[in-house]
## 1
Amino acid sequence: MPQWKRQLHEVIYEADTPLGKIFDIGLLIVIIISVALVMMESVDTLLDKYAREFYIAEWIITIIFTIEYILRIISINKPKRYIFSFYGIVDLLSTLPSYIGFIFGGANLLFAIRALRLLRVFRVLKITRYIGESRRLMLALRNSRAKILVFLFAVVIICIIAGTLMHLIEGETGGFDNIPLSIYWCIVTLTTVGFGDIAPVTPLGRFIASFIMITGYGIIAVPTGIVTSEYGRATDKPIRNTQVCPNCNETRHLDNAQFCHRCGYLLNE
Amino acid sequence: MPQWKRQLHEVIYEADTPLGKIFDIGLLIVIIISVALVMMESVDTLLDKYAREFYIAEWIITIIFTIEYILRIISINKPKRYIFSFYGIVDLLSTLPSYIGFIFGGANLLFAIRALRLLRVFRVLKITRYIGESRRLMLALRNSRAKILVFLFAVVIICIIAGTLMHLIEGETGGFDNIPLSIYWCIVTLTTVGFGDIAPVTPLGRFIASFIMITGYGIIAVPTGIVTSEYGRATDKPIRNTQVCPNCNETRHLDNAQFCHRCGYLLNE
Amino acid sequence: MPQWKRQLHEVIYEADTPLGKIFDIGLLIVIIISVALVMMESVDTLLDKYAREFYIAEWIITIIFTIEYILRIISINKPKRYIFSFYGIVDLLSTLPSYIGFIFGGANLLFAIRALRLLRVFRVLKITRYIGESRRLMLALRNSRAKILVFLFAVVIICIIAGTLMHLIEGETGGFDNIPLSIYWCIVTLTTVGFGDIAPVTPLGRFIASFIMITGYGIIAVPTGIVTSEYGRATDKPIRNTQVCPNCNETRHLDNAQFCHRCGYLLNE
Amino acid sequence: MPQWKRQLHEVIYEADTPLGKIFDIGLLIVIIISVALVMMESVDTLLDKYAREFYIAEWIITIIFTIEYILRIISINKPKRYIFSFYGIVDLLSTLPSYIGFIFGGANLLFAIRALRLLRVFRVLKITRYIGESRRLMLALRNSRAKILVFLFAVVIICIIAGTLMHLIEGETGGFDNIPLSIYWCIVTLTTVGFGDIAPVTPLGRFIASFIMITGYGIIAVPTGIVTSEYGRATDKPIRNTQVCPNCNETRHLDNAQFCHRCGYLLNE
C-alpha cells in the first residue's frame, strides 16, 4: 500500500490527525449546507425567487460529494467493503439522484428528484460516528433494545384493543370512522401527544379515553426504568479512538491496537 | 395418556420443539391476518369493494380457529382446566361470534357481529407468553403494581378536585359544562395529552390550568422512580422455559423440572 | 377514659379491628356516593330530571356526615385537637354548606351551595391514610420536595423568559396577545401538554417553539432522576400500623408501641 | 480595603449575614414586582387604564436598580470583573433601556422599550444562586450535558428525516407545505406536545406519524436514564456557602475557606 494512499485514508476515514479533523469539519459544513438547501427549496416562495441560485448550489455540492466518493474508493485496499457498506450506499445515493435529475430534467420530474434528495439527509448520521459519548448511549440502547421492543409491542396491542373499543363506542360522531383510524387516535393518546383533530364526544368514550391516558401516563415509567438500569451497567470508558483499518475499514479498535483485529493489517506505520 | 396425545400437547401448548415453534408462528400469522381483516372491514370503502372476499376469508379463519380449539381440548387430560382458563374463553369467543353471525346473518346484525369479533384481538396477547424478556418486565410491573395504583389513585383524586374547581371558575364559557367533563379535561391535561377540544379561556382558569400542567409534569417522575427501583431488583435470569404440564396446564416450571410442581404429573417421558 | 369511648375511638379513628375496617369501608362508600352526586348534579340534563332525588340523597348524606362528625368529637379526650386539625375542618366543611343551603335556599343561591360542596371532595383524601404503600411514596416525595420545587421554579423562569420572547416575536397574529397569555402558552408547551388553541404561525416563532419543546422533552428527566434516587433511599418497611392515640390523636406510632410517644397515654388496654 | 466597603460587599454580594439576607429578599421582591409590571403592561386593557401608574412605577424601579448597580460597582475591588460578568451585563441591561425609553420617548418607540425590558426578567435568574439545593441539580445536569446534547442531536436528526418524509407523503393536504414546517411538526410530535394545528390526514402519513409518536414515547427514557445515573453520582453535600471574594468576586469557596482560592485575598477579617 503506497504511502500517499495510507495518508489519504487516514485523512478521509479517521479524525485523529489535524488534517483528518479539518476534512471532517469541512465535510460536515457541506452536508449541513446541502440539507439546508433541500429544506429551503421545498419552500415555494424561496424556490420561485432563487431557482437559479439553488440550481448552481446543487451542482457545486453534487461535484464535491462526487469527488469525496471517488477519494473514498481510491484510498481503501478493498473498495467493495466500502461501496456495499451502509455509508457507502448512502454516499452513492447522495450524488446519483442529482445526476439523474440533471440528465432527465423537466418540470414534472423536479418533484421526484427532490424526493430522492431526501436520502442525502442520512449523510448527517455519519457525524454521530465522531462523537465519543454517543457510543455509551448506543450501548445502553442496544442492551435494552429487546426489552423496549417488548414494551412497545405491548403498547401497540393495548392500542389495537382500545382502538377497536373506541370505534364501537364513539362510531362516526367523534370522528372514529374506522378501526385503523381509532388505533391511530389511541397511539396519539397513549403516547400523550394528543393532537385533538379526533377527540371523543360521548361520555362513555371520554371515560375509556381517560383510562387510556392514565395508562399511558403510568407505563411511560417502564422504558425509563429499563434504560436507567441498562445505562448504569454500560461501561464507563467510551472508546474515543477513531482509528479505521486502511485495508478492511473495520472501525472498532482498542486504543493501543497496532494491527487490525480483523484482517491483521498494520494500522500505523 | 397415549403418546400421540402427549406429542400433540407438546406441539400445541409448548414452544420447545421445532414443530411447536412452527405451530406457534403459523397461528400467530393467522391471528395477525384475522385482526387485519377486522380492521379493514371497518373501513367502509374497503367493505363495499371486497365484501365477498372478506366473507370468504372470515369463513376460512373461523374454521382454522375451530380446529385449533378442538385440538386444544383433545390434547389435554383435564379439558375443563383449559376451557375455563382465560385463554380458553378468549379462544371460544374468537370463533363463536362468527358462527352466530353466519346463522342469524342480516344487514342489521352485521354491526353487532363485528363488535363481537373485537374480542379475537385478545388472542394476540398470547404471543407475549412466548417472549422470554416479557417475564422480567411483568415481574417488575407486578411488584410495583400496588405503588403505581396508589399513585394513579392520587392522580385521580387531584383530577376530581381540580376538575370541580375548573368547572366553577370556567363554567360553560370554556366548555367546562359539568363536573364529569371538567374532570375528563383535567385527566387530559395532567397526563400531558392535551387535546385542545376543551381549553380554559379565563385568566384565572388558565392560571389554575398552569398549576395542573406543572404538577403533571413534575409527578410523572413518581411511577418512573418506582418502576426503576423495582426493575433493578427483579431477578436477572428470566425463565425462558415454555414447558406446560399436559395434565393440568400449569405453565411455570423450573428449567430442570421433571414433574409438575402442582399435580405431580411426569412432564417429559 | 370510659371503656365505650375508647372502643368508639378505636372503631372511628383506627382500622386495626374488624369493626374499624367496616366503619372505614362504609364511610368510604358514602363519600364516593356523595362525590358522585355532586358530579351528577352538575350535569344539567340529570339535574332537571332527578332534582327531587338529588335533594333527598343530599339530606341523607348530610345527616350521616353530621352523625359521624359528632361521634368523632365525642370519642376523643381532647376534641380541640381534632376540630382544628386539617381533617376536622374538612369534615365540618362537608356538612355545614348543606345546612346553609337548606336554610337560605333559593334559585340564586343554589350555585353557590354547589360551589361549597366541592370541599367535600377533600374528604376522599382521607382514604390514602389507610393505604400503607402510600407512606413510602409520601416519604420519597417529601425528601425530594425541595429539589423538585427548585426544578419547577427553574421551569417557571424559563417559561417567563420564553413567554416574553414569544409575545415579541409572534404578537397578536398567533394569538400571543399579551405576556401572561404567552407564558401560559409556554407552560402548556414545555410540559408537553400542547392544547393547540394558541400555536405559533411565524417561522421564527416556530423555531423558538421547537427549542422550548425540545427543552421540555429533555429536562423532564430531572425530576425523574431526583425521585428515583430518593425513592431508592426511602426505607423498605412502610409503617402499616393505623394505631391512633385516643388522647391526642397522634397517628404515627411504632408497631410495638404501648404508650403514645407524644402524650404518654396508654394506647391499648 | 476600607471596612465599610468590605461590609457593603458582604451585604450586597453574600447572604450569610442577617443584613445580607434582608437585602437579597428586598431585591427579590423588587425584581418580582418589576417583572409583574412588564407582564401587566403587555395587557392592552390594563395599559389603557393605568398608563400613568405604570409610568411612575417604572421610574421608581429604575431608580432602585440604578442605586443597586452603583453600590455593586463601589463595593468591589476590581469593578471590571463585575461589570463584564454575566450578571453585571444583565444588571446594566435592566436599567439602561428604561433611561433610553424616557429620553427618546414616543408612541412608536414604546413597544421597542418594552422589548428591551424583557431582559430584566433575566435578573430573576440570580435568585437560584442563593438556593443551595440547586447546586447539586446543576452539577448533575452539567455532568450529563454532553450526553443529553448527543441525545437531543439524535432527536433533531430523526425529526429532519421524518419531517422530509412526511412532507413527501402528506404534501399540502395535511398542512405539510414545506420541509421546515414538516420538521417543526415532527418536533411537536416527537416531544409528545401535539398542538394539532398541523396533523396528518392520509392513511400512510398517519402510519408514519404513529411510528414517530411511539419513538418519542420510547426514547424519552434516554435522558431520564442519563440524569438518574449522574444524579446518583453527584456529591451528597451541596455547598451552601454564599461567601464571595470581595476582591475578585469568585463565588465557589469551601465552607472553611479563609482566603480566596483564586486571588489569595482574605475572605473574612
## 2
Amino acid sequence: MRDRAPPQLPPGASSEAEKKAVKEWFENLRDQICEAFEELEDGLEGSMLPPGRFERKAWEREGGGGGVMSIMRGRVFEKVGVNISTVHGSFSPDFAAGVPGADQDASFWASGISLVAHMCSPRVPAVHMNTRHIVTTTRWFGGGTDLTPMIFNRKDAALFHAALKEICDEHDEDYYPRFRDWCDEYFYLPHRGESRGIGGIFYDYLNTSDWQSDFAFTQDVGRTFLEIYPQLVDAHMRERWSEDEREQQLIKRGRYVEFNLLHDRGTQFGLKTGGNVEAILMSMPPEAKWP
Amino acid sequence: MRDRAPPQLPPGASSEAEKKAVKEWFENLRDQICEAFEELEDGLEGSMLPPGRFERKAWEREGGGGGVMSIMRGRVFEKVGVNISTVHGSFSPDFAAGVPGADQDASFWASGISLVAHMCSPRVPAVHMNTRHIVTTTRWFGGGTDLTPMIFNRKDAALFHAALKEICDEHDEDYYPRFRDWCDEYFYLPHRGESRGIGGIFYDYLNTSDWQSDFAFTQDVGRTFLEIYPQLVDAHMRERWSEDEREQQLIKRGRYVEFNLLHDRGTQFGLKTGGNVEAILMSMPPEAKWP
C-alpha cells in the first residue's frame, strides 16, 4: 500500500473527550449493524432454521485495552463477525519505526470496528467493513468496505459503488477515485491474478487537519455501509440457488482465505504479535473448498 | 528453522550423471507411490464411488525447467497431489544472499518430489512428504515427512515414528533425534499453540561430504514413506466414521491451511516469486471449515 503519512501533530492533540466519542461511535455503529442483520434473519420466511442472533464475547488485551466480538451463525448470514476493539500501549521498537508519529514515542491508542460476513446463499455477496482511529503523537482515521460477490451482478456492484461515491463526494470530490483505486490495489491476489471482489473504498492515514471532518467522514462510511449492504442482502436472500452456485461460492471463499492469510496485513500483524486469535480469525469463512 | 550451512564445495562438484540419477529417483519414487495409492483405491470394497486414478499434468517454469503434477481425487484419497519438479536458473540477488553457496554465483539446479494427501475418512491421517536435492556452488539434500491425524491414534503415531527411527539409525544414530526435533519445531502453529500433527522427521542442508550416502538416506526416507503410510491407510480406511469426526477433520484441515499460507516457506516463496500456482497450492485441502 502507498505510504501516505499524515502531518506531524503536537503530542496530546487527541483529547480524552475525542477518544471517548470515537469509541462510542464504533460501539453505536456495531449495535445498529447487529440490529439490522438480525432483522434480515427475521425477514427470511419459510426457512426450517430459526433466525440467527448475535452472541457477544469480550476479550482483554495483554498490554492494555480489549474488545468485544459479536458473532452470528444464522439462516441468512452463515457466519458474520463484528469486532470492536479499543487498545492502547506501546509499539515494539521494530514496529514503531514504520508507524507515523511513533518513531520517537512508541505509545499509541487505537479503536476500531471490523466486520466480515459470509452468507448462506451464493446469490448474496460477502462483505468486509472496517473503520478505525489511531493516535500516536499524531493521529488519523482509516478503513473502508469491499464487496465480494460469489456470482457477479452488475446492478449490485453499481449500487454499492454509487452509494460510496455519493458519500465520498459530499466530503471531497478527490476521495472516491483515490479510495476506490486504493481498494482495488489492496484487495488483489497477485498469485491468482484476481481481484478479491468488485472493490469498494479503502483509505488510511486520513488527517486533513480538520479532525471533526475526518471523524464525520469515517462515520459516514459506516452509515453508508449500514444502508447499502442490508439492501443487497434483502434483494437476493430469497432467491433459490443451485449446487453449482454453492460450489462456486466455496471456491471463491478459498480465495478469501488466501487473501486473509497471505496478504491481509491486519491478520498477519495480529497473529504474529500475539493478538486475540479468535477475534483475528473471525473473518475466516465457515466452509471453503480447494477441489 | 536453524541454519545448518553445509561446507563449501568446489564448483561443478555435481556431475550431470549425479543430477540425472537424482531426478530419475524422484520420478521413480513418484511412480511407485502413485501405484501404491491406486491399489489402496482398488482395495476399498463396497463403495458406490469408482476407484480413483491419478491424472498427470506437466508444467514449465519460466527461467528453466518444469515439473509434473499428479493429482487423484478418489474414494480413499479425497485429494492427493504428488509434484515432481526439476528446475534450474539463477536466484534473484536478494534470495541468493540467504542460500548456501549462492552468494557469489547465483546459479542453481534443484530437483524434488512433494506430496500432500487429504483423506476421505477422518479415521485416516493426512500426510506430507517431500525430498529434494539442491545444487549451487555447493549442494545438499533436504526433506522429510510428517503425519497429521484427525483423531489421535497412539499406535499409528508409534508405527510412523518407529519406521522413521529405524531408517535414520541405519545411517546415523544422531539423525532421528535431530530430525524429529527439527520437524516438531517447523510444523508448529504459534498463534494456535498447536502442533500440525504428530510430527515425523525434517532435515535440510544435509551434506556429510559423502554424496552417495546422503543420496541413499534421501532415497530411504522415500522408501520408508512408501512402506509405512499405505499400511496406516489400509488399517483404517474401512472403518465407519461419524459426522462429528468428519467435522473435526474439516476443522483440523483449516489449521493445515493456516500453516501452509502463514508459515510454510515453500508455499510463501513459491507464490511470491511467481511459481506455478496450481502446483504450489495442490497441497490445499479439498474442503475445510472455520465454524
